[in-house]
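Researcher: I'm preparing a figure for a lab meeting and need a structural model of a single chain. I don't have an experimental structure, so a prediction will have to do for now. The sequence is pasted below. Please return the structure as tokens so I can convert it later.
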Amino acid sequence: MTNRIDMPVEFGIPAEGRTALVLAGGGVSGAVYEIGALRAIDDLLLNRTVNDFDIYVGTSAGALVAAFLANGVSSTDLMRVVGNNHPLARFPEPKHLFHFNTRETLRRGLGLPRRLVTTSASAMARRGRVSVLDMLFSGLGDALPSGIYDMTPYGDWIEETLYSIGCSNRFDELESDLFVIATQLGNGRRSVFSSETPEVPVSDAVVASSAVPVIYKPVKIGG
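Model: Understood. Here is the structure written out token by token.
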């Protein structure tokens, strides 16, 4: 038994050099967890806040949180948004995150009969070399949508929320450097959006980073 008294520990950020905050994904629950953790970190920092980092790097939900931090939005205000207690912003609703990809589903579905006829004709020409499964996958593959949900409403929510609280949707106008990490669907390569890609809105980059393959329709950026 000791007489030690546990006291809050305060940490500071080095005065020299640049500092970075890297935030990972995790969906809605991940974003809420990160915001809560950032609020706790604010309590530990000495004469600093989580808005004083020079660089913010984010993926998926972490990209969303990083976008607000790079705009100077405090962890306290982010907590208010999560609790829907902010006077100018609300946390995203299911309609923003789970909007069915109806248009593409209908468009591809309408083309299914023609595709099946073409596939059947091709199979007849190559009789004995094409299995029933080959026919099904060939015919149905092009009839399926690229994703169950469309994240366009989520991107609109990000843009509207940034503007409503006086923030910017441009990388080159942010108070700190922001890097949003996404993955190219075709080759698996990493794409990095930052002030070096000023033509890409922050909201588009965050949505691209958050679009989980198959679940969400891929986000097309640029050509």
